[in-house]
Amino acid sequence: MRTVLFSISLIMGGLVFVYSQENRENIPGQNQPGIYDFVVEDSQGNAISMAEFKNKTLLIVNVASKCGYTKQYEPLEELYKKYKDRGFLILGFPCNQFMNQEPGTNEEIQEFCRLNYGVTFPVLAKIEVNGDEAHPLYKYLKEQTGGAPIKWNFNKFLIDKKGNIVKRYLSGDSLNELEKDVKANL
Known about the structure:
- There is one protein chain.
- By secondary structure, this protein is α+β, with helices and mostly antiparallel strands.
- The protein has helices at about 1-20, 75-85, 105-115, 135-145, 175-185; strands at about 40, 45-50, 55-65, 90-95, 155-160, 165-170.
- It has five helices and six strands; from the N terminus they run αβββαβααββα.
- β1 and β2 form a beta hairpin.
């Protein structure tokens, strides 16, 4: 009899566990995506899980080669070189949604960045950042920072080592302030 009761209690305990796992989405805040739940593509089209960047301070930037802000590649590269050994990483996402200022192929974009600005931080595959075809990562970033669309090239999102969005920066925001925020989150 003890064996039967023990077996029944194990089965019931297992059912409660399974039920609670299956119904996690019904508990507020339990199944919300985070920055590490997204997948992006490198410039060759290979999938990269954002989870690969856990424990790093990230700066996510939508970039373009033919924009008045393109010159920001240079100070961004300097910032990357200065702090990369302390766990800082910049991820550039080319985007052609703003007056066709990133018309090239992924290969052409890589060459442009390397030859003109010596960029060594990852510049990933071209994406859209606004509209129905916006990359899910950018939908998430915008949603988590008030929902406003990306207004132009070189908007930036600073992410701390735990995956929390620290701050959203517009194209013309001070790179000196950005550096202070980066240092505070290393």
